[in-house]
Specification:
11-stranded antiparallel beta sheet, globular, 21 strands, Anthranilate synthase, alpha+beta
């Protein structure tokens, strides 16, 4: 099974899509730091395969091409800048039923799906003795947050998504599919992802949608605002109310809504950008999240890469104003984000697509034996550095503890 390329996008509501097998792919590696034509090459690949399902991802550092920036921090797991693939087989799954929508059902492909589903049902997970170490000390983290707050005080920016990386740098992870299903049993996230190709594996439990296209409607669902889950229903409800009424969390969310509205307006039909939901609370297995939903209409001539140029990287993982905060992120963070805070998803033959935000995700490079898990929070003028540090651990602790049980 591991010799196949595999992509599995799981909404955890009974609907999922599985892609596997051989197939043409485009891979643009991130060591080409000054690459300026990645999106042009990607658009050509999409046009050459426009009647097919395509699965792929864009790394955060595609920002360098779109916004004329650069990245010089340490790149631990070395995922490509762009990877897209036309799978030999694509299977849509709805509860107990599945149907082949790309590639013919044969004994080999049918057996693969059956084996995959058996892995999903099997709850006898391996324990993982991950030994993650932060790449930045708590003292240094607090210094960096205070420096960012100073930039906010001076009017340089309003909000910055500041992240840190945790690394296990010598690990042979032989049970990647088992690890994915174990992570998914912990998070049950609506944009859960398993993606394996070449030497690289993504094991993701993302709760966040970056962007979706259905017919001529685009929608984005940024998350800003996090609270842990309570031990009892009463505590849970109290935490929900605290999150709902927290002025810092609401202001963070509203700032990103404004940024997303501005991004969408670049490619939207006139007067079509609207906020469908503002600061609603959604509860997941490990956390409560504050989510807003913004949408617009586009003209038929607007391409996938036109949309990416206007909206990427997503506002929830950058801040406002976007270009300035990306410069500050590069100055203050200790690592190159790579695929973390990028996006994974798929494009349908009719041009519709759906892409997540790569958070709550493990990234593994089998070649250099490095496993990365990164996490961040939004820094505003109201941020308490100690609490921001704690929020990072709220987001990852239950995941990492659960994987090691």
């Amino acid at each position: 099974m591991e010799s196949y390329k595999i992509a599995y996008l799981n909404s955890n509501n009974g609907h999922s899509v599985l892609a596997f097998g051989k197939g043409e792919a485009i891979r643009i590696d991130s060591n080409t730091v000054n690459h300026t034509s990645g999106l042009v090459e990607l658009e050509q690949f999409i046009q050459q395969n426009k009647n097919s399902y395509l699965f792929g991802y864009l790394s955060y550092d595609l920002k360098n091409e779109i916004h004329h920036l650069d990245s010089n921090n340490n790149n631990s797991v070395e995922f490509p800048l762009i990877y897209f693939w036309k799978p030999q087989y694509v299977v849509e799954m709805k509860n107990e039923n599945f149907s082949f929508v790309q590639g013919e059902k044969c004994q080999e492909s049918f057996d693969f799906v059956q084996n995959f589903l058996e892995e999903e049902i099997d709850q006898n997970f391996h324990p993982y003795n991950f030994n993650f170490k932060p790449t930045i000390t708590k003292k240094k983290y607090i210094e960096k947050v205070n420096s960012l707050k100073n930039h906010i005080q001076l009017g340089d920016c309003y909000e910055v998504n500041f992240c840190q990386e945790f690394i296990d740098d010598n690990i042979d992870l032989d049970f990647t599919l088992d690890a994915y299903f174990k992570l998914n049993s912990i998070t049950k996230a609506p944009f859960s992802t398993f993606f394996q190709h070449d030497e690289l594996t993504v094991i993701g439990g993302s709760p966040e949608r970056f962007i979706k296209k259905q017919n001529l409607k685009l929608s984005s669902e940024p998350i800003k605002g996090t609270k842990k889950r309570g031990q009892t229903e009463e505590e849970d409800n109290q935490l929900i109310n605290e999150l709902k009424n927290d002025p810092k969390e609401r202001s963070e969310n509203v700032m990103i809504v404004d940024l997303v509205r501005n991004d969408l307006s670049i490619i939207a039909s006139k007067n079509s950008v609207k906020v469908d939901e503002l600061c609603e609370i959604y509860s997941y297995e490990t956390v409560h999240q504050m989510i807003s939903k913004i949408s617009c209409e586009i003209e038929p001539s607007v391409s996938f890469t036109d949309i990416i140029r206007a909206t990427f990287p997503m506002g929830s993982m950058t801040g406002a104003p976007k270009k300035r905060v990306m410069e500050l992120i590069e100055e203050h963070e200790s690592f190159t984000r790579g695929l973390y805070s990028g996006t994974i998803g798929y494009i349908k033959p009719n041009g519709d697509f759906d892409f997540n935000v790569v958070i709550r995700t493990l990234l593994y490079n089998k070649k250099n034996k490095k496993l990365s898990c990164s996490v961040g929070s939004a820094i505003t003028i109201l941020s308490d550095p100690e609490k921001e540090y704690e929020e990072c651990f709220v987001k990852v602790k239950r995941i990492l503890d659960g994987m090691n049980e």
